[in-house]
Design a protein that fits this description.
CATH topology: Rossmann fold
Number of domains: 1
CATH class: Alpha Beta
Number of strands: 7
Distance between the termini: 51 Å
Strand order of the largest sheet: 3-2-1-4-5-7-6
Shape: globular
Number of helices: 10
CATH architecture: 3-Layer(aba) Sandwich
Largest sheet: 7 strands, mixed
Order of helices and strands: HHHEHEHEHEHEHEHHE
Length: about 280
Amino acid sequence: MTEPLIRNVSDTARWVAVYRALESERRDAVFKDPFARALAGDRGEAIAKAIGMTEEMSWAVVARTHAFDRFVARAVEAGVDLVVNLAAGLDTRPYRMTLPPSLKWVEVDMPEILDYKAGVLASAQPVCQLERVPLDLSNADARRGLFSRLGRSASNVLVLSEGLLIYLMPQDACALGADLADAANFNHWVVDLVSPGLLVMLKDQTGALVAQAGAPYLFAPDEGPAFFERCGWKPVEVKSMLKTANSLGRLSLKFRLFAMFPEPAGPAGSRPWSGVCLLARL
């Protein structure tokens, strides 16, 4: 028997790193991640090659990465002194972004992926104070303890969860949100979100592969960003990934035509939609 293409959810981080590498190698790159190619490794390249859909995946990853980057940069300028990156995967923002040396950055993820990243980046130097915490975020008691410790260590905390929530049941996403809202000084949270319509498309395209790895696509609330109000957070800014990709010049003609249409003011419902949302604690 040969092992599955995607063995576990951590392999999706290797897959996504391929698209960050492709963007970084462009002459007009909107961000530079010099570590992405090495972090993707042979497995990431194999996954991307086998799945294909380079055009769709590339612009979505670029738009999401760019939107998260901008929210981080603005938050740091506004006085955030701690960034907590949940399910950090192979993110390299503490190495590649312009950040103050005094900023504290904490990466939380499963031990295997953090150990792998630490090995690949052994000779690199982060630009800020970096801590890695191996933790299974499904362990509610452990994460509450971590959030409590981190909240006491800072005065203004920004939480990131890029590519995490889609793998959670709605009640689990809300429970995580409630735990974050209960932590002292956890003031803002940046998440990415898909509509129910886009979730159906993602399941048709790659859902079987991630489900086989024990990480099916699950989370696409009918209410859209307003979902988080039930667990202690309110949306204060939402960036459409399609509109962002179009503004960056990363869409083909086919997708540029879609980007010309106005997006609904309320929940997208059955319409394909994805976005990056800045949430503030209620």
